Amino acid sequence: MAQIELVGVEKSYGRPKRGHEARKAVSDLSYVIEDGHFVSLLGPSGCGKTTTLNMIAGLEDISGGEILIDGRRVDDLDPDKRDLAFVFQDYALYPHMSVYENIAFGLRMRKVAKDEIDRRVRDAARRLDIAHVLDVKPKSLSGGQRQRVALARAIARRPAVFLFDEPLSNLDALLRDQTRSELKVLHRELGATSVYVTHDQEEAMTLSDRIAVMSRGRLEQYGSPYEVYHEPATEFVASFVGKPRMNLFTAKRGERGRHVLPGTAFGVESGALPEEIRVGLRPEECDLRRPLAGEQPHGTVVAVEPLGNVSDVHLTMGDVEFLVRVPGFGSYGVGDAVVVDLTRARLHCFDPE
Ligand code: ADP
Ligand code: MG
């Protein structure tokens, strides 16, 4: 059982120079990770994900704010008093110990009874399908098996909180997808609060109850996968979450009370909008068709990328490039004049940065 609360958490590395504030690796982080939730910290490299995780773990001091676990301040609590287990990207196994000893080590250090250790090691090994390699040393295992040993070691501890730092990024694509699904099953079985660092929006979307999207040390949005995908709070979230990337344009106040995309007939009611806004449309929510007789096309196909189940069709439309994802191989070729149908599309509006 563990709820984790961040209140105005910040971290600066190094001392401030005279007349300058120290550069903040993270600042103003406030959110609650509910008990039993799987929460991803998502963002590009250098945005402060690992720093945040390490502060929750107690591996880094915090420079400001508070971290509470179940309502209790833990800022000054040693990592091993926080009842959490860490799984790193590089596995961090002991090379001279067998798989069994690697999994058992943390339990021995905590003076767990020998037969209880044995029960837990075998249970964790069974869950992760490594029961047949308990006697070998890590060096004779594949990367995927090593990662399973690291996971088994964390599970055997039975902590209140699991912390993961990009645990799948050293695995090849197939194994990564497989392990991702297994992680999801494991979380459902164990139900422990989990905080998961990743730069991969697909991992975050598929695994999480909530996603904390970060950019440049700040929280951009904290929400469910549905919310960050369908109701992105900022243009950053809109462009980082979802693949292919959202179409994003600047629209200006035009004639007849509408904001229009440059060189196109697309627009939105101006209402109380500022002079310029940013507008976004997801490629997978747009449709294409050929113009009817006498109808003005919206744009021209400049490239088609078939992916098997879908194809990405790139258009030029007025002054902008536009992407539409169509089913299957589609029926469009380079040079075709097309009409973009926005019936299914949600229009997202953002303030200019
Ligand atoms: P992420 O995990 O999202 O890639 P990090 O949390 O590792 O990002 O880093 C966030 C920022 O803090 C980066 O600008 C990084 O250079 C800086 N940083 C991280 N660790 C240290 C450190 N030990 N000393 C100084 N700067 C650091
Ligand atoms: Mg990191």
UniProtKB/TrEMBL annotation:
The keyword Transit peptide does not apply. Gene3D superfamilies: 2.40.50.100, Nucleic acid-binding proteins, P-loop containing nucleotide triphosphate hydrolases. SUPFAM superfamilies: MOP-like, P-loop containing nucleoside triphosphate hydrolases. The keyword Cell membrane applies. Keywords: ATP-binding, Cell membrane, Membrane, Nucleotide-binding, Translocase, Transport. GO terms for molecular function: ATP binding. PROSITE patterns: ABC_TRANSPORTER_1 (PS00211), ABC_TRANSPORTER_2 (PS50893). InterPro entries: AAA+_ATPase, ABC_transporter-like_ATP-bd, ABC_transporter-like_CS, ABC_transpr_MalK-like, ABC_transpr_MalK/UgpC-like, Mo/tungstate-bd_C_term_dom, NA-bd_OB-fold, P-loop_NTPase. It comes from the Bacteria. Residues 4-241 form the ABC transporter domain. Pfam families: ABC_tran, TOBE_2. This is ABC transporter ATP-binding protein. It comes from Microbacterium sufflavum. The lineage of its organism: Bacteria, Bacillati, Actinomycetota, Actinomycetes, Micrococcales.
